[in-house]
Design goal:
The complex is a heterodimer. Chain A is an alpha/beta fold. Helix content of chain A is 38%, strand content 14%. Chain A has a seven-stranded mixed beta sheet with strand order 1-7-6-5-4-2-3, with helices on both faces. Chain A has a four-stranded antiparallel beta sheet with strand order 8-9-11-10, covered by helices on one side. The longest helix of chain A is centred in the first third of the chain and has 20 residues. Chain B is of the alpha+beta class. Chain B has one domain: Alpha-Beta Plaits. Chain B is globular. Classes of the chains: A alpha/beta, B alpha+beta. Chains A and B meet through helix 1 of A and helix 1 and strand 2 of B.
Chain lengths: 359, 71
């Protein structure tokens, strides 16, 4: 902040120029990482902001959308508002994690003449299910639909490329798999779509124009950008490259989950939700104990030094449509910084909790 | 030919600068010292040397079309 803590794109002094350069370098790095265009790479406050911009900026009265049964409330709630206030309809596609052909068949049945968009999460934040996004992209292209992806759990962990994967709207947080600070997010969009703005105001350019400038990406970024966050996001992307890329990260996380699943599966009272994971590499795992609330288990694990998320994970659809127990599940989501030794310790503690040796 | 190009967008000016740098042409971004009275603030890309070649490169990449105002 001492070196270039100025407002990018506003003042003309050296600090502002350096700040602007930092924003540009990160934007370029994000665009390159996801096969997007610099002008169509928009910094947002978080993934939810990016999803709201993608949905509300694109959908119009009379449009119909298909979403998956594994969507986060970040997708569901904006659509509920659009349904209630803007005459937009949506259908929920029930994902069969074990049968892609069945999922595709169900998706085809939901397409109507007014269907405008197919929007799905890439990886379920509850069960770790990896959705077949290339299959969905083909379906969308075949039917002239826009294809949107919520990459909240997958950006930085799974390979994603706007062009090669046939994605029109790609939403992601900066603070998860991209190792940026909290309060950062990105929307990348293809040349097939041009969302309307959610917010208008100063952009640092065309200051005498009363109307919002149409210049990309500035038209979506009114107000002061989160420079410290964006600089941190740039550092996060450099870290991923230094670590060996998404494949190396995914391999490490999937191996930890494999060990965890193996360990937990021998604890008889634990219900693992691993049949909901599908064929993809699993990088998180949900489980429950029949006689304990998930929040209670999480509190016990916290006492043992483990930070897990319990409950319903802001994912009403995933829990209600895929039959998780009352009180939700406990979700373990390791990162590259976790080790097998930690996983072994975790399994030991869970065994103690299941045996009621930790109260 | 004046040794600068106008841009309404900072991002476009930066894209142009990086493109020219990759071609070995030095360029610097400044706030437009004489903002358009109808449009308001903008940026100029100052290219003191090889300006003609810079213009050709920027035109080839579409960076002097929609958002830029040629000097």
């Amino acid at each position: 902040m001492c070196c270039f803590g100025a407002n990018p794109g506003r003042g003309g002094h050296r600090l502002a120029a350096k700040a602007g350069e930092t924003v540009f370098e990160t934007r370029q790095a994000v665009a390159d990482f996801f096969g997007g265009m610099v002008a169509r790479t928009v910094f947002c406050g978080n993934c939810t902001h990016a999803i709201n911009l993608a949905l509300k900026g694109t959908l119009r009265t009379g449009d119909h959308v298909i979403i998956s049964s594994l969507e986060h409330n970040a997708v569901l709630r904006p659509l509920e508002r659009l349904r209630a206030q803007n005459g937009i309809e949506y259908d929920v596609l029930r994902i069969d994690p074990q049968n892609e052909a069945e999922t595709l068949l169900r998706a085809r049945k939901l397409i109507r003449p007014e269907t405008r968009m197919l929007f799905v999460t890439h990886v379920s934040n509850v069960f770790g299910t990896v959705l077949p996004i290339r299959m969905f992209a083909s379906l969308a292209k075949e039917n002239g639909l826009l294809f949107g992806v919520d990459a909240a759990q997958s950006a930085g962990v799974f390979d994603l490329d706007l062009e090669n994967d046939g994605i029109d709207l790609l939403c992601m947080p900066g603070h998860k798999g991209l190792f940026g600070p909290m309060g950062t997010g990105v929307l990348l969009f293809s040349e097939r779509v041009l969302p309307q703005t959610l917010m208008e105001g100063g952009t640092g350019t065309l200051s005498l124009a009363y109307a919002q400038p149409e210049i990309l990406p500035e038209r979506y970024e009114s107000g002061t950008l989160n420079l410290p966050g964006i600089a941190g996001l740039g550092a996060g992307l450099r870290f991923i490259r230094q670590y060996g890329g998404t494949q190396a990260i995914r391999t490490h996380e999937a191996e930890l989950i494999r060990v965890l699943r193996e360990d937990l599966s021998v604890i008889r009272s634990i219900d693992l939700f691993d049949t909901l994971c599908g064929a993809g590499e699993q990088t998180l795992l949900s489980f429950s104990l029949p006689d304990k609330e998930s929040e209670e288990i999480a509190a016990m694990l916290d006492q043992c030094g483990f930070a897990v998320r319990a409950g319903y994970h802001c994912a009403a659809l995933a829990h209600t449509m895929h039959g998780s127990p009352k009180g939700g599940t406990v979700r373990v989501s390791p990162s590259v910084f976790n080790t097998k030794k930690q996983i072994k310790n975790f399994s030991f503690c869970m065994n103690q909790i299941a045996l009621r040796k930790i109260l | 030919m004046q040794p600068f190009f106008h841009f309404d967008s900072l991002t476009n000016a930066q894209s142009a600068k990086h493109l020219l740098n990759r071609h070995g042409i030095s360029a610097a971004i400044r706030r437009d010292p004489q903002p358009d009275r109808r449009r308001g603030c903008g940026f100029v890309l100052f290219v003191p040397n090889r300006t003609q070649q810079a213009q050709q490169i920027l035109e080839q990449h579409g960076l002097l079309s929609a958002n830029a105002r040629d000097a």
